[in-house]
Amino acid sequence: MSPTYNSGDYLLVDKINQDFAREDIVVFKSKAEQRTFHIKRIIGLPGEKVEIKDNKVMINGQTLNEPYTEGETFGDVSIQLEQDQYFVLGDNRTKSLDSRKFGFVKKSNIQGEIFYKISGLIK
């Protein structure tokens, strides 16, 4: 999730609130390995159509303003999200393993939203 979060940062996660919104940064379990966790930003919400084309992210046909990103958003994606499905992307788009590769994330796999960062003391 560089540049937003970096190796060595300590992150606090709200595991109680389950009302996720666009741009929330969440921790979720990997589909492939349930002991592996990922950190990504929610881009698409249940019921929305997410498209990526020409390095632009569109939600229901409207281009999404994303000042937090680094790098270009490669890939051609078109997905209609259903109930309890979220589309997530990393902020460093050229290096991120995210919904462009593994598809949507189920709400039941989301552990919580990151709400506080303590920058790593060791660099």
Helix content: under 10%
Order of strands across the main sheet: 1-10-2-3-8-9
In DSSP terms (H or I, runs of 4 or more residues), the helix count works out at 1
Number of strands: 10
What summary fits the major beta sheet?
Answer: 6 strands, antiparallel
Low-confidence stretches: none
CATH topology descriptor of the domain at 10-46 and 82-118: Umud Fragment, subunit A
Keywords:
10 strands, 6-stranded antiparallel beta sheet, globular, 123 residues, mainly beta, Umud Fragment, subunit A
How would you characterize this protein structure?
There is one protein chain. With 123 residues, the chain is mainly β. It has one helix at 99-102, and strands at 10-14, 25-29, 37-44, 49-53, 56-59, 62-63, 77-80, 85-89, 105-106, 110-118. It has a 6-stranded antiparallel beta sheet with strand order 1-10-2-3-8-9. It has a 4-stranded antiparallel beta sheet with strand order 6-5-4-7, with no helix packed on it.
Structure summarized in a few sentences:
This protein has one helix at 99-102, and strands at 10-14, 25-29, 37-44, 49-53, 56-59, 62-63, 77-80, 85-89, 105-106, 110-118. It has 123 residues and is mainly beta.
